[in-house]
Amino acid sequence: MRDHTKNLCKLSDIGTVARGKSKHRPRNDPALYGGRYPFIQTGDVKHSNFYITEYSQTYNERGLSQSKLWEPGSLCITIAANIAETGILAMPACFPDSIIGFIPDKGKADVRFIKYYLNTYKLQMQSISMGTTQDNLSLEKLLSIRFKIPPLPIQQKIAAILSTYDDLIENNKRRIALLEKMAEEIYREWFVRMRFPGYCKVKFKKGFPEEWRNLSSIEVFDVLSGGTPKTNIPTYWNGNIPFFTPKDAKNNYYVLNTEKNITRNGLSNCNSRLYRKNTIFITARGTVGKLVLAQRDMAMNQSCYALLPKTTSGIYFYFLSLNNAITYIKGISKSGVFDNIIVDTFKQIPIDLPPKRLMDAFNDRVGPLFDQVSCLLEKNETLSSSRETLLGRLISGKLPTESLDIQHPPSMQNKQDVDHAQLHL
Description:
five-stranded mixed beta sheet, 23 strands, 3 domains, 12 helices
C-alpha cells in the first residue's frame, strides 16, 4: 500500500488561518442586525451538511463595520459551544471569534479535502479543547496540531470521490425543501385562501365556512409532556430508543435520529411515554416553537410537548395548521427574559377545523409529499453513513485512490428531479 502522506504540517502551512470578528459589545445589540450580510454562528456550522447555505441572523452595515466579510469557499471551524464542527461558506458571510476561518493556498490544499480531513480529527480537537471552566479550542491549540497532508492531486481526487455523496445529499435537501414548500402552499390555498375543493358550493358567514368550527388547540390536541431518565445511571442510556430534545429539531418536517438514545429500562424510569410515529413534537423552552413529526417511535424530554390529535384522522392537516401558526405561537410565548410555552398557551392558539371529509381529502393530497420527504431524509442518513465509512478508509490510506473511479453513488438522482418539482410550485 502506497503512503501518499508527506511531512507533518500545520494548517497555517497550507493556507491562511484567522479568527472571525465581532468586536462590538454587547454582541446581541439589535443595532447590528437585520441587514443583508449573513452572520454565521456555531449552530449554523453544526447544522450544515457540507456547504453553509442557511443562517438565522444577518448583519447590517453597522454590524459589518465591526466584523469581517469572508469570501465563499472559506472553511469555518468552530472553537466554542459546538466545538470542531466544520462547513464551507457558500456565500460571502461574517462570523464571530468563536469560529476560525481557513482559506487554502490553492497550490497546496483543496478546501473540500481539508474539511473532510478535519472531520476525522474531530475527537482529537475536542479533547485538546477541554478546560477547567469552559471548553474552548482556540487558534493556538488548533495550530498546535500537526497533520499528514497528501500531495494536492491526491487531495483533489479524494475530495472528488467524497463530494459525490455530499452533492447528492445537497440535491436531496433541495428536493425536500421543494416538497415541503408544495405542502405548505396547498395548505394555504385550501385553508387560508379558502379555495378548497367544492368551496363554491359552501355557505360562508363573514368569510368563514358555516360548517367549520373555530376551536382552541387545547380542544383539538391532548398536550403531553416528557421527562429525562437519571443521567448517572448507565443502564438507562445508549439504547435503541431515540430520545428527542430541542437540539434534535432541525428545519425539516421529520426528525429521524436524535443525539441521545435511551434503553427500555430508561423509558420505564422517566416521565415520557413512547410516542408513536407521526407524533407532533413542539419545543417549549430554549428554542421555542420548532415543530417536527417523529419519523419513528421516540421518547421525549421535559423541554417539549407531544401533541396528539383527539381524532384519528388529519395528522398532516394538524401539523401544517400549527406550522402556519408558529409566528403567532412565538409571539404569545414571551415570559420575562426567557421564551417558553406552557400548557395554557395552547388555549390561545386557534385552529379552524374543517369537516372530517375535507381533512381526509387534504391528507390524501399531501400525504405522498410527506412520504417523499421522509424517504429522502432516510436516503441522506444512509449516504452520510456510507460517506463516513469511505472517508476513514481514504484518509487513512487503507483504500488506495488509484484503484477508484470517481462516480456517483448508485442511488444518485438526476438534477432534473429538482427542476421537475420546481415546475409544480
